[in-house]
Amino acid sequence: GQNIDQPTEMTATEGAIVQINCTYQTSGFNGLFWYQQHAGEAPTFLSYNVLDGLEEKGRFSSFLSRSKGYSYLLLKELQMKDSASYLCAPGKGANNLFFGTGTRLTVIP
Amino acid sequence: GAVVSQHPSRVICKSGTSVKIECRSLDFQATTMFWYRQFPKQSLMLMATSNEGSKATYEQGVEKDKFLINHASLTLSTLTVTSAHPEDSSFYICSASGRETSTDTQYFGPGTRLTVL
Questions:
Q1: How far apart are CA A49 and CA A62, in angstroms?
Q2: Of A49, A51, A95, which Cα lies nearest the Cα of A74?
Q3: For position B113, what pLDDT does the model report?
Q4: Rounded Cα–Cα distance for residues B23 and B9 (Å)
């Protein structure tokens, strides 16, 4: 079976750093995706980790530990537009993703 | 690159009617397309996966006779909600993966909000 655990909601201040954690158990695993979803819109791709370690992409970084079934998304220099849901999606690859309920991040001034 | 469009973006229909939603990959060939449904404040729920030219694979609990999926070409998939009822009101999102995308990932369309009266 599949089990994905993320905090339901987080609040952070504009300009700060926030880390969104995700633990998972899946029946098959090749890599882990992070998506951003603004309210009423479709998800947009943020990152894909296959190997252990940290991958940095601008203000967003994503970390993966395969042995621990753990990932996090790190957002730096938070902006108001970063208020959104962040979806952790482990899977066997692009054609086999499992989505959790996501973490709703609210950025406050 | 890797743009997916969906049409219509919003539809309101009467109970008992059928609604067709189109999903197109605009700049790549989508060998696989996915249809999701999302209720407010809930997770994306995969409804079905379709490969071009073959029958869709439906997830458990999704009625294939109610949600008809056609993936006739490498750039187009359609979802038809037949005999829609108010409980079918939801946000329907398609995604696609395939050749010529820069990353092995799914690219999502903008979604279709269906309201059944």
A1: 7
A2: A49
A3: 95
A4: 11
Q: Determine contact, residues B82/B66, Cβ cutoff 8 Å.
A: yes
Tell me the two tokens of residue A90. 């482990």
Q: Which residue among B42, B43, B111 places its CB closest to the CB of A42? A: B111
* pLDDT above 80: residue B39: yes
Q: How many angstroms separate the CA of residue A43 from the nearest CA in chain B?
A: 6
Band the pLDDT of B20: cuts 50, 70, 90: very high
- Does A40 have pLDDT greater than 90? no
Sequence-ordered list of residues with C-beta below 8 angstroms from that of B7, at least 6 positions apart, any chain: B21, B22, B24, B112
Which residues of chain B does A87 touch, with a Cβ-Cβ cutoff of 8 Å? 43-44
Look-up: residue for tokens 């899977």?
A91
- Mean pLDDT over A69-73 rounds to 96
Quickly tell me which residue has 């279709």 as its tokens: B112
Q: Which residues of B fall within a CB distance of 8 Å from A101?
A: 42-43
A85: closest chain B residue by CA:
B41
Instruction: Give the residue-averaged pLDDT of A59-78.
Output: 96
Asked if A62 contacts A75 with a C-beta cutoff of 8 angstroms, the reply is: no
pLDDT at B55: 85
